[in-house]
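Translate sequence into C-alpha cells.
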Amino acid sequence: MPWNSNNNNKGGGGPWKPNPGPWGQGGGNNTTGGGPTPPDLEALLRQGQDKLRQILPGGLGAAGIGLVGALALGIWALSGVFTVQTNEMALKTVFGKYISKVGSGLNYNWPYPVGGVIKLPVTDRKTTSVGFSFRIDPRTGNQATLDVAEESLMLTGDENIADVKFVVIWQIDRLKPEDFAFNVRRPELTIKAVAESAMREVVGRTQIQRILTAERKVIEPAVQELIQKVLNEYRAGVEIIQVQLQSVDPPEQVIAAFRDVTAAQQDQDRLRNEAEAYANKVVPEARGGAARITQEAEAYREQTVAEAKGQASRFSQVYEEYRKAPDVTRERLYLETMERVLGGMNKVILDQNAGGQGVVPYLPLGALDSQPMPAARPQAQGGVVR
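Result follows.
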C-alpha cells in the first residue's frame, strides 16, 4: 500500500518524480535548472509512518488505526465547544442553516465543517454618521472631520436647501439577531441609506426656518421612528437607539444672509414679547383702577341712599310726633336747634325783664374746666402774706 516504504524501488522516488530529495533541489529528470520543487508527499507520509511506529512499537495494526481514528474523532468532536462573551449572542448553524441562538457562557455545536457559529455583539452600540465622515490626517495623525455634501444637502418643504449633518446610534436587536446576520448583506450601509432617506423625507415636508429654530427637537424622534419602521419592514434585526442632529445650517454660500434673517426674527420676537409683557402689566393695572373707582362709586351711592332713607325716616317720625303735640314738638325743635347752633360759641345772656343793662351774670364752668389749675399760694405766717 502507498503508506509503506518500497525498498525495491531503486530510484527511491514516488510516482510523481523519479528521484527528488525530500525538500531539496530536483534531480534526475529535472532539466529546467536548479529551481525549488514541491515537497515529496510520499516521503512526508513515510516520515509520519516512522514516527507512529516509534510511538506504537507493535506497528499500525487494525487496533492502532482504530485508536488513531477514535482520537482524531474525539479531537474533532471537542472542537465544537465554544465560549460566548457577556456582550455577545451566538448563532448556531448546521450545514449553513440557522438552527438556534445561545447567550453568554460555554456552549456546544457541531464542529466544522458540519456546524458553524456566528458571534454578534448585541449590547455594543454603534454610530453611523450621515453628511460627514472622519479621516486621519496623514501629516498630524489627528482625526479630522470631512463634509460629505452629497449626503448633507437636502431640499426643504419651502424649496430651500439645508445642510443637515446627523448621527444614528443603533445596536443589534437582542430578540432577533438572526435577522441581522442573514437578512441584510451589509447592515451598516443599509442603515446609513435608510437614515439618509428618512431625514430627507422629514426635512422635505418642513420649512427651513422651523428646521433652523424650533423644529429641531421634533425632527429627531420623527426620523428615528421612520428609520425603525423601514428597518423592521426589511427585517434587518436592528434597534435604533437615538438620532442626534449635529448641525442644521443653510448652504455655506448663503449662510451669512440666513443668519441676518434669523437675527432679525429674534429681534422681532423679543420686541413682541416686551410689548406683550408691557400690555400684561398695564391692562391689569387699568382694570384694577376701574374696578376701584366703580366700587367707590357704588359705596358712595349706598351711603347716600342710606343717609337719605335715614333722614326721611327721621323726618317721618318727627312729623308723627308733631301731629300728636304740635306745641311741644315746636318747642323741642327750637331748643335742639339752638343747642346745636349755639353750643360751641361764646354767649352773652340778656334778660329784658332784669334791671340795669339786662346782662345776666353766669359762671362759665366749661371755660374753667378747660383752664389749667393755678399753682398753690404760700401760706400766711402771722397774718402776713409773703
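Note: Residues 1-35, 380-386 have pLDDT under 50 and may be disordered.
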